[in-house]
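Throughout this chapter, every protein is written as a compact record of paired, labelled lines. An example of such a record is reproduced below:
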Amino acid sequence: MEDAEGNIRGYRMLLMDNYSSHLTWQFIQYALSRKIVLVALPPHSTHKLQPLDVGCFGPLQHYYGEEVDNFCRYGHTGVNKEYFMKLYPTARTKAFTRETICNAWKATGLLPYNPTAVLKTLPNAEPSASLQSITGVGPQTPRTPKTVKDLQSLRDQIAESTTERLDGMLKSPIQRRLEKLFKAAIGFATDAYIQREENKKFQAFKMDKKSSRRLLSKGRVLTQEDVDRLKAEDLEKQELAAQKLA
């Protein structure tokens, strides 16, 4: 927004996906000059973080379907571009109400800001192993640990169970050997995790070096550095194209 003298008053934030075609250096530079803070959502997260995806497109699809059903009852067998432009505005008006839009922002945890709103929709990590097969409580088969947290949870469960059932009689030598085993497994799992993360960064770096417009694989605020990088990529492409024509 501008005041009477044409000065921009305050900052605005624009949430957007991380798709490469939306992120040109001209667009980012224009936004920065107009005090628009661009926040790129993490890849593959719009179904959880984008209000339109979470709370608006569903009702829109429902009401548009109703409009098409009513339209076809009068003998029409299809919806062309002309009829679409007549049906869509009505469906959009019914779907994009103030209540629906506010609920969509609330469900994504963006307004009011509440990360828990999204985190609680994610599947909880269940204990990866059960002690029932070890203690004889039941026939359930333990699950294979997949994360360091799973390994630590399994170790704690075994330690607690053997202490309760055998009054500490298993402290030596089995528990000591199990403790050594879990320490080694946690170390291996940690190293593997670090290596996977480094590999992700390396792959993202390779993509960037090939003049891809795709940003690093994480959501973040776009800055002047992104403008300079994308601008340099455009210049490099133009020089290569000119060399081919020469």
User: Anything to note?
Assistant: The longest helix spans residues 174-209. The chain has ten helices and three strands. Residues 132-209 form one domain. Residues 125-139, 166-170, 211-216 have pLDDT under 50 and may be disordered.
